[in-house]
Amino acid sequence: MVETTALHDVNFNVSKGEFVAIMGPSGCGKSTLLNILGLLDNSDSGEYFFEGVDVSGFGENQRTNLRKGNIGFIFQSFNLIDELTIFENVELPLIAMKVQPAKRKVRVEEILDQMRIGHRRSHFPRQLSGGQQQRAAIARALITSPKLILADEPTGNLDSSNGEQVMQLLEEMNAAGTTIIMVTHSLNHAERAHRIVSLFDGQLVMERSEKVFESISKVV
Amino acid sequence: MIRQSIYILLRRITRDKVLYFIILTNLAVGFAAFVLLSTFISDQFNHDKQNTKYDRIYRLQLFMDQKENTVKHTWSVTAALSRKDLVDLPEIEKIALIHDVGDNNKSGVFLSVDKKNQFLTRFGYFADQSVFDIFTFRFIEGDQANALVQPFSIVLSKEVADRLFPGGNALGKQVYGENKVVFNVTGVYEDLPIKSSWRPVYILPMISYKAISGQQDYESNYWSYAFYTYVLLKPNASAASVDTKIYNALKDYRKEHHPYLRPMSKLYIDPFFEKSMYVIIGLVSFLSALILILSSINFINLQTANATTRFREIGIKKTLGFNKKRLWKQFMTESVVLTFIAAITGLFLAQLVIPALNNMLGSETFSHTFENWRLLLVIFIVTLVTGLLSGLHPAYVISSYNPVAALKQKFISEKTNGISLKKTLVTIQFSISIFMLIVGFIIYRQTQFMLKKDLGFNSETVMFANIVTDQKGSLEPLRQKLLQHSEIRNMCASDYIPFILPGGDDLNWEGGKPDDKVFVRFSNVTYDFVPTFDLKMVEGRNFSREFPADRNKCLINETATKVFGWKDPVGHRIKVFKKDYEVIGVVKDYVVFSVYNPTEPHLYRLAKDSIINNGVYAVNYASGQEKKAMEIVNTEFRNFFPNDAFEFRNMQFLTQNENALMAWKGFSKIMTLTAIITIIISSIGLFGLILFLTQRKMKEVGIRRVLGFSHTSLYMTLSSEFIRLIFISVLLAWPAAYYVYRVLPAGANKYDLQIWEFILATLLILIVAVGTISYQIIKALCVRLVDILKDE
């Protein structure tokens, strides 16, 4: 079997409260990077410091525990569980954290209203529009008030107005202090981040701060 | 968490109806079979349980320590044992002496209210009043405490009371026995359950036995083995201590015979220290476990397969921080819940078919499960264990998915040992199916063998009736009258006929050591007994009217010559009740009482050519003329015995309803049912499994098709693996089935095993397998290529 290297010599820092966009062509390793950052996968070598702790050697249980409540995920394909209602889908992370049912109920209803899908709480995912589904997925990501949100092409499956709504939500979350790392193909959406990290063939090719980006965009 | 798991499960069930229908039907049918077979097994242990003093009731039996005897135990004992030897024992609280009314082996006694409408009633008994203290009876009418105290009283079961007094109110009324004796009804009791080892339909007081039978000294008689004795021990008294005290009670009479007490719990299952019932129960238990294992394996396979459609749910949950343990719990919960749904469905399914099955089997083979809390508890535990065990593998596979791969919906289980485990499970599945089918065949063939066995006498065109009469005189006029009709071939009288077992005595024989004794059964027969029953003579001759001295001669059967060790039996002498008889002929062995039991030595003496007052009259008629012959017989006998009641029946009434044969018939039907269920479950399992495998191979099939593989070669690739597994299964199933044949307690008559039974059973499973495989593969091959490849 031929092994391919998805990421190689990638080195970067994300500070608390930052909004970082990751860009790059298909197969460049964006998702692999996100999986490692999200503690879904381990890297073969190298180090990953999460809040100053080296987590690269963590076993599955340790990673699961760290992930729980600390990291929220938003996916392009929403990844809501078909057999659960919107309420139950959003409730899942709290169940994983063993939060009391009464508290769960209050928290879930609060966030559903905040996402303007409270009236859809007892519906199943496939009864909702794409935008509504993604808002439910965001609600699920936010419900534990995570320190870090990882968004994998969150607007990829949405039309422009729904995409815009999602971007606004992300910006609001970021303004409230949540660190966000977002993979995207859309330059428009990427430019709303503080910083863009570009990957090519598993390597970090460019890191642009807002100011750098502004000057480049003028040239372009 | 558990609540949510159940929600998810229920929603999946409503979404994937077909898949869950297959999963649940498989398990529910498995459980229904398990419930049925467990009910059958538990019923075997529930005989006599209606008695509240069950644990303290014992039956007096005899061990006959004689090496030549084929039957070494009996519960026919002498009255003197209970009247003299048991009475003073401190361990015993109550003793009940019992005797048949008439001869229950034959056909019973005619009862009537008006001397006209007489009912032939079998299974009436004389008994002491103490039977009501020992056994549990429920009286509807009368005073249980004094019902058998007055001479010539009669206590009726509801069944008999309803027939004699259809309007009710039997108490105080009169009942005639054989139009000769009049009894006064002193009580009516609820019919005893079928599962009672002693089941009288009416009871007469033992105090009237002397007057009715004319046996004055029966209470001090140590020779007549015609009574039954039940005792109730005091609480905590030891039966073993009684056994020691009565062990030599017969030393002055038959020193080889030793009385002992047999507990009520053994009376049905194991009255005579034989393992045959245990083998049957063991086999049925094993089969019920196998059926459950079979459907559990299907369940495991289907659930594991089903898990691959749940990647997203698993991926998300893992991503959100659910650890392996919690996912594992979720899927275990699911497995247990599904198993319970199936078990409850199966339980009700079984209750639905029980009445039909009982009807089919013609008895109370199955009782209702809900009446038996112990069985319900067993079913509950088995369900829980099945749910947990069946959940282990799917839960393990599912909870081990890597979240990233799961979200990408890749098949990861390839890497685990899932496939080889699956092969093992499929092999076990095939093995169990083949094994069960072969065992089904074996039991069926054995039963057919017993049913169709040449009994050695004419049981097709002979009718018989037991007539109790005071009439005297020669029988020859009746016989001559009958023979004037072309439909009648012959007629004889005897005190016993085939399938009505005669008594006997321990005899010494010419050439044996003075101490050697063997139990020989004997009957008195008229000249025409041998031709009427179409018996064959292997040596010598039958009794003949041309030899007046035949009254001192006898016939014996083949077994007797073997037991006595006589090479040339004709001319040998044998002493019966101090009288010498010379053997003039040897009758070819025939089935005397049961196809199950080995033949015992028999001896036939010539009856005087006159009416036997408690005799069996047998008539051989021309084949196909049963109706006409019955008319003739009824008319001629009515003319000849104007004052006596009788009822003629075909011999098959005796041969087909014999206990051991009935048990085998029931067993055979249960096995047929088991075999059918096996085929259903196997088909469901294979269908689901192959459906899943071909779905997974759709893409592979598609690519191969694009590359130009022919349908035939694809078919071979997909099916060859299953076929190989079937052949491995044969290696496991055949020897196991052969072992069952070896230990099968078929008594004296085991049929010869044949290889085609094994081949046929295997072929059947092969057909089911190939059928399902072909259906699925052909379906896979017919899908449009573009549809397969654009997926993923």
Descriptive report:
The complex is a heterodimer of chains A (220) and B (792). Chain A has 220 residues and is of the alpha/beta class. Chain A is 38% helix and 17% strand. In chain A, strands 4-5-6-1-7-8 form a 6-stranded mixed β-sheet, with helices on both faces. The radius of gyration of chain A is 18 Å and the shape is globular. Chain B is of the alpha+beta class and 792 residues long. In chain B, the strands form 3 sheets. In chain B, strands 1, 2, 3, 4, 5, 6, 7, 8, 9, 10, 11, 12 and 13 form a 13-stranded mixed β-sheet that branches. In chain B, strands 16, 17, 18, 19, 20, 21 and 22 form a 7-stranded mixed β-sheet that branches. In chain B, helix 13 (418-452) packs antiparallel against helix 19 (659-706) and helix 20 packs antiparallel against helix 21 (755-782). The radius of gyration of chain B is 34 Å and the shape is elongated. Chains A and B meet through helix 2 and helix 3 of A and helix 1, helix 9 and helix 12 of B.
Task: Break the fold down into its secondary structure elements and pairings.
The complex is a heterodimer of chains A (220) and B (792).
Chain A (H helix, E strand, L loop, with lengths): L18 E5 L6 H8 L11 E2 L2 E2 L5 H8 L3 E5 L10 H11 L4 H14 L15 H13 L5 E5 L7 H16 L3 E5 L3 H4 L4 E6 L2 E7 H10 L1
Parallel strand pairs in A: 1-6, 1-7, 4-5, 5-6
Antiparallel strand pairs in A: 2-3, 7-8
Chain B lengths: L1 H14 L1 H28 L12 E8 L8 E2 L4 H7 L6 E9 L8 E4 L6 E3 L2 E4 L3 H4 L4 E4 L10 E5 H7 L9 E4 L3 E9 L12 E4 L3 H5 L13 E7 L5 H8 L10 E7 L12 H32 L3 H9 L4 H38 L11 H27 L3 H5 L10 H35 L9 E7 L7 H8 L4 E7 L9 E4 L10 E8 L3 H4 L4 E4 L12 E5 H7 L8 E4 L2 E9 L14 E5 L7 E8 L4 H15 L8 E2 L1 H5 L2 H48 L4 H33 L11 H28 L2 H6 L2
Parallel strand pairs in B: 6-11, 8-10, 17-22, 19-21
Antiparallel strand pairs in B: 1-2, 1-12, 1-13, 3-6, 3-12, 4-5, 4-9, 7-10, 8-11, 9-10, 14-23, 14-24, 15-23, 16-17, 18-21, 19-22, 20-21
Helix pairs in contact in B: 1-2, 1-10, 2-8, 2-10, 2-19, 8-11, 8-13, 8-19, 10-11, 13-19, 13-20, 13-21, 19-21, 20-21
